[in-house]
Each structure stands twice: as C-alpha cells, then as structure tokens.
C-alpha cells in the first residue's frame, strides 16, 4: 500500500491550516498592536515638541526613536507572517515589499532582478515560494555575515526559477541540513507543491539557493 500521497495531503492540510492562523495573527499585529504603537509614537512626538527642559526633551526624543524602531519591527513581523500584497499584487510585489522592510531592519542590501513576464500562480504556490525565499533571506541575516545579497526571478513558459545568492561565510550543506529544521523545511515545502529547492554552499565562498517550480 502506497501511503506517500496520503502523507503529502496531510502535510499540505497542516501547512494550509497553519497559514490561515498565521494570517489572522498578522492582521491582529498590523491592525491592533501596530496601530496602537503608532498612536503612542505620534503622541510622544507632540510631547517632545512641547517640552522645554533639554534633558527631558532628549529623553522624550529617545522614547520616540524607540517606538519608531518597535513599529518597524512589528511591520516586518506582520509581513513575515503574512504579506498583505501577495494575493492581490503577486509574488514579485510581495517580495519587494518584504525586502524593503528586511533591508531597513537588518541593513542588508538585496538586489532584485525579475526576468520575463510574471505568471499567475495559485495562492498555495505563492505563499510557499514566499516562505522559502523568506527563510533563505533570514538565514543570510543570521549566519552569512554579509551586507549584500541578490535574488533573481526567471519566468519561463513552463517553469519559474528563483536564485538567491550571498557571498558570506558559507557552510557545509550536508551537516547543516541535518541540524537545521529551517533548511529541511524549505525543501519539504517545495516538494509538497511539486517543486524543488537545491542548496549550494562553500566555507568562505558564500551560498546559492536554487528554487524551481513547474508552471502549468
């Protein structure tokens, strides 16, 4: 008896349910916590302008900057959880919005190149591709020790290819795959939608991740 299709269906259902819950949390963060913090931020700016004592004015300014930084982090977290433009504007727009926040948060410049005409893909495939690209970029921020990276989208008639590269520290792929659930999850997510994720890396030579998805 072949149980592989059943396992694949169960895994897909779990991921879909998980994504729906993530979407709900992201909306609450953005519309609830984010809006409340923004109200506090604008209030602190008004207080700062009204204060005449230099020491207190400086303190209020520091608090405003802290609130502004927190708002930025909340925005990035909400987009990481569920990008609002993904289903409305497509994968490329969602990735560009995410990368803008990613760069302002981590200081890593990401060069984006989009080759060919973007095809319409399902919501399931879009969120999977976004998650895999997101995991790759977060890993660069955490481990690569570099300030630059690149991501290239190549749209062909029958296939989408995505290449994510950095010139950071690199790592031993086999060892990392056994230790990192994130790297394994990237491959598993792509497998569930009929795609593939291949990771190449060398110590002190950087890392290259190649993602491919058939287009029908």
From TrEMBL:
Sorted alphabetically, the keyword list is:
ATP-binding, Kinase, Nucleotide-binding, Phosphoprotein, Transferase, Two-component regulatory system
Return any one Pfam family short name: HisKA_3
Known InterPro entries for this protein? HATPase_C_sf (IPR036890), HATPase_dom (IPR003594), His_kinase_dom (IPR005467), Sensor_HK_TwoCompSys (IPR050482), Sig_transdc_His_kin_sub3_dim/P (IPR011712)
Please list the reactions this protein catalyses. ATP + protein L-histidine = ADP + protein N-phospho-L-histidine
Q: Which domain of life is it from?
A: Bacteria
Q: Does the keyword Transmembrane apply?
A: no
GO molecular function terms listed in the Swiss-Prot or TrEMBL record: kinase activity
What residues does the Histidine kinase domain cover? 32-216
Question: Which EC number(s) are documented for this chain?
Answer: 2.7.13.3
> Which CDD domains did the record assign?
HATPase_UhpB-NarQ-NarX-like
Query: What name goes with this protein?
Result: histidine kinase
Give the species this sequence originates from. Answer: Peribacillus butanolivorans
The lineage, from the top, is: Bacteria, Bacillati, Bacillota, Bacilli, Bacillales
